[in-house]
């Protein structure tokens, strides 16, 4: 059922108070098809967990929220299990279920906000793991034809926080399910310094996938604000990937700074470090600002407007560009 003039504050983790002229949820392909038949000429917004979006104004169209559930084993061998998951499942709840069943591969991605459907769209990643590493395929509903299309790993054109669904196929499909290849014989990925330090602190020398998950949860909880308490969308900016000559320029003024190898001979820099060096970490402007523990995170302390946070992000981009010659890119979708 389509509702009129619905406040979206509870449907975005920034907690921005804006209205959708029309709003509905769907929990099956049939319900999705029915809702789209009533779209008329309205603009359309597909909403998942609302964790990677910043509303700067009311949405004068139809917002439909994906609530398709499901967890199904579709193939299994001695070493692997293939699990098909509804796109409307909460990502972290899915991770915890995998840990409970002793299925590995997603433990490094614990506590990432959002829905399962957003995971391939964003190619979410953390602590040395990305969705493309465990992804088999997804099912997507083509909005203009009503057909279900299958996309494999290559079809999705995964990049750093990118996929074909954010580029050439943007706004053309609704992801309805994702299938992952999970391990039964686990390859533990604890190479990230923060994870190694957390395991050492806990006295763990032979980590399980649960140990990794618990460590990641502890790390993220210690430096990232809980969106249930402080409105935010996690990392607001992408870590920039640059040429070596830019790294050499930065090294002239900073003897040590975080940088990591990237594909094609490039180097990945830490956007949070750049923002902090530009003086923005912990800055507050009334009821919004930059988080005091993680400069990558912009926060809504109470009743701020989306355009205020957007304007702050623009000022940060300008500041970093002036100081380092690097143009930061927003990771969050702006509506």
Question: Can you describe what's shown?
Answer:
A five-stranded antiparallel beta sheet has the order 6-7-12-10-11. The chain is 26% helix and 27% strand. By secondary structure, it is of the alpha+beta class. The protein has nine helices and 20 strands. It folds into three domains: 3-66, 2-Layer Sandwich (Uridine Diphospho-n-acetylenolpyruvylglucosamine Reductase, domain 2), CATH 3.30.43; 71-183, Uridine Diphospho-n-acetylenolpyruvylglucosamine Reductase, domain 3 (2-Layer Sandwich), CATH 3.30.465; 231-334, Uridine Diphospho-n-acetylenolpyruvylglucosamine Reductase, domain 1.
Order of strands, widest sheet: 6-7-12-10-11
Q: What CATH first level of the largest domain would be assigned?
A: Alpha Beta
Domain unit count: 3
DSSP helix fraction = 25-40%
* Main sheet makeup: 5 strands, antiparallel
CATH fold-level label of the largest domain = Uridine Diphospho-n-acetylenolpyruvylglucosamine Reductase, domain 3
Q: What is the strand content?
A: 25-35%
